[in-house]
Design brief:
Bound molecules: zinc ion
Number of strands: 5
Distance between the termini: 33 Å
Structural class: alpha/beta
Length: 161
């Protein structure tokens, strides 16, 4: 297992935590330039009734508070699902250096759906790191919610009856 996959496993732990709270199972972590984990977060949209409660936003806020700065230069974020437009903008504003994500999102994904040009972003993007376990988590969640449409948002090739 690569080091990037090991960090993604920590993000997946956060996604599992979200699942136990009946949140959409998406998790994230941020590491600093010395590869230390400085923040962990997960989706809190339902619990906090907040549309900005995405895993990336929660994790970025924790990191900026911990470091006492609004700029996370030389830091990297790992998130289990491709970021939406709101989160890709926040990652850019926070000056993160690298984005590593798991599953593609074909309904909300900034790159897969909204076709944001990678060359327009100020950070490097590394796609589909441990995508499979992220997809399984999301599929299980949406199966229980009986929302096939949202499930397909994660991976259209994995249709649920
Ligand atoms: Zn988002």
């Amino acid at each position: 297992m690569t080091q990037n996959e090991q960090f993604m496993l920590l993000a997946l732990e956060q996604a599992h935590l979200a699942q136990t709270k009946n949140e959409v199972p998406v998790g994230a972590i941020i590491i600093d330039g010395n590869q230390n984990v400085i923040a962990r977060g997960h989706n809190t949209v339902f619990g906090l009734k907040s549309i900005i409660g995405h895993a990336e936003i929660n994790t970025i806020l924790e990191a900026t508070q911990k470091l006492g700065t609004s700029r996370l230069i030389s830091c990297s974020i790992y998130v289990t699902l491709e970021p939406c437009l709101m989160c890709i903008g926040t990652i850019m504003q926070a000056r993160l250096s690298h984005l590593y994500y798991g599953a593609n999102s074909y309904v909300y994904g900034a790159l897969s759906k909204h076709l944001v040009a990678e060359s327009s972003l100020h950070f490097k993007i590394h796609k589909q790191i441990l995508a499979a376990p992220s997809i399984v988590l999301l599929q299980d969640f949406f199966k229980k919610k009986r929302s096939c449409q949202l499930c397909l948002a994660v991976d259209p090739t994995l249709a649920i009856d």
